[in-house]
Amino acid sequence: MESSNSPLQPPTYGNLITILSIDGGGIRGIIPATILSFLESELQKLDGEEARLADYFDVIAGTSTGGLVTAMLTAPNEQGRPLFAANEIKDFYLEHCPLIFPQDQCLFSAAKNLLKSLTGPMYDGRYLHQLIKDKLGDTRLDQTLTNVVIPTFDIKYLQPTIFSSYEVKTNPLKNALLADISISTSAAPTYLPAHHFQTHDSAGNVKEFNLIDGGVAANNPALLAIGEVTKEITKGNTDFFPIKANDYGRFHVLSLGTGDRKIDEKFDAKECAGWGMLSWLTHNNTTPIIDAFTQASSDMVDFHLSAVFKALHSEPNYIRIQDDTLKGDACSVDIATEENLSNLVKIGEKLLKKPVSRVNLETGCNEDAYKTTNEMALIKLAGVLSNVKRFRDIKSPHGKMPKTNY
After folding, report:
1. How far is CA 296 from CA 170, 216, 281, 290, in A?
2. C-alpha atoms less than 13 angstroms from C-alpha of 6 in its C-beta half-sphere
3. What are the beta bridge partners of residue 163?
4. Which whole-number Å values give the CA distances from 271 to 66, 266, 286, 329, in the listed order?
């Protein structure tokens, strides 16, 4: 079966709004990258080898490492197709993470890391920044192949700065380079330096940005993506007519986590009660204060969406794939050893075989929801996404009839 290679037509020509959301988590981005590779391979079975995720999702949202993945999936190459196929992202991490987060093999590396965290970021970010600039070049936010939502946090004004394809249409000063956005959303405090840049509009106005990791604002950006669409519906954007802002039955959301350590039960109150600033910054190769606020951010979004979709009888439309059983080095955002990176790939592959889960709003832990596996849920989702795209291509006056063999 051949793909039409046409861009995804707006939801005017269908009943669903499709959203992909990718959490932050440093090197643990390998886990959702593995999931996305599987999903794209299923879409290719249905629609041809050229099928890409950006062809199927109305919005792709990502924070921190998820923001970088979002940019890679949606930035156009010279042929106007996505810069990266999903199956290339895992290899990108395996190749470049050891250079982004070089591991100090010195006997006194723990002490050196502590000193680094007290005097500046643990990593200078030079390799990461140049790598992102080389890959994304001069591509700007308004050039992505589908709508994107990438959060950052303005450290000067202490407020979130959200880069949204929808907002940039009316606010050209938000039309930043994808490279600058990706560097900013990945600038995790204590790990990588904050990022400063400026944008200009045609009238000569200048806007200055002083940004750090989007995980400070929304480590799980799924709710932000829904919010951006809801604002467009409220404003009367004809792309969404006649969808209502509170009709969650029209949203189909795939939210991918980067794993957490809930089962590990790493810390307890008796231990933490005696901690000072240094222990909160670094403890047993972790950064507890960073782990706490990013995980809290992710979980609050999951709690909210799980409850809302269930209350509105749309529970099957919200798919959250997350592993809460990480332990040891796998919990880190920067231990980029060959052994740990290989282990993260295996964690992603095993996660596909695990049952679909739902968060228990009392314990915060995942519980099996259905007998089906994440893998089977993604195969079903691929069918939904393919059908949505075909329907929109047929109905849209600007689309073209997809080639099929049935």
Report:
1. 32, 10, 17, 10
2. 20
3. 150
4. 32, 10, 15, 20
pLDDT means over runs of 10, the chain (406 residues) = 54 82 97 98 97 96 98 96 97 97 66 62 95 97 97 96 95 97 95 96 94 94 94 84 65 94 69 79 73 79 87 88 91 93 97 89 74 94 94 67 33
Do 28 and 65 touch, CB atoms closer than 8 A? yes
Dihedral sign, CA of 219, 223, 323, 73?
negative
Following CA atoms 179, 180, 182, 183 in sequence, which dihedral angle do they give, to the nearest 10 degrees? 110
Tell me how far apart the alpha carbons of residues 288 and 282 are, in angstroms, rounded to a whole number: 7
Whether omega for the bond prior to residue 10 falls within 30 degrees of 0, making it cis, is no
Residue 218 in contact with residue 224, Cβ under 8 Å?
yes
Q: How many CA atoms lie within 13 A of 213 on its CB side?
A: 27
C-beta pairs of 49-52 under 8 Å, 24+ apart in sequence: 49/3, 50/3, 50/5, 50/81, 51/3, 52/81, 52/82, 52/85, 52/86
Nearest to 56 by CA among 395, 400, 386, 398: 386
- Of 204, 86, 70, residue with least CA distance to 132: 70
- pTM of the entire predicted model: 0.90
Structure tokens at 71: 């940019």
Q: Just list the catalytic residues.
A: 64, 213
Q: How far apart are the first and last CA of the chain?
A: 9
Classify 158 in phi/psi space as left (phi over 0), alpha (psi -120 to 50) or beta. left
Q: Residues 287, 293, 299, CA angle at the centre, nearest 5°? A: 125
CA separation for the pair 264, 109 (Å, rounded): 24
Number of other residues whose CB lies within 10 A of the CB of residue 231: 14
